[in-house]
């Protein structure tokens, strides 16, 4: 709960093989979690920008 209150999000099971195929290993992952009151998890659609 402390992570959520601090605005820290944990992402698991991301498949980053495709963005790394061209040898680029740097970029930004942008996510927009749903704001659900009292919840500690939310579905997301991450976007990788290289």
From TrEMBL:
<dbReference type="InterPro" id="IPR037175">
    <property type="entry name" value="KFase_sf"/>
</dbReference>
<protein>
    <submittedName>
        <fullName>Unannotated protein</fullName>
    </submittedName>
</protein>
<dbReference type="GO" id="GO:0019441">
    <property type="term" value="P:L-tryptophan catabolic process to kynurenine"/>
</dbReference>
<dbReference type="GO" id="GO:0004061">
    <property type="term" value="F:arylformamidase activity"/>
</dbReference>
């Amino acid at each position: 709960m402390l992570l959520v209150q601090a605005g820290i999000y944990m992402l698991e099971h991301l498949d980053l093989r495709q963005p790394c195929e061209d040898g680029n290993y740097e970029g930004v992952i942008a996510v927009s979690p749903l704001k659900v009151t009292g919840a500690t998890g939310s579905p997301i659609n991450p976007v990788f920008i290289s």
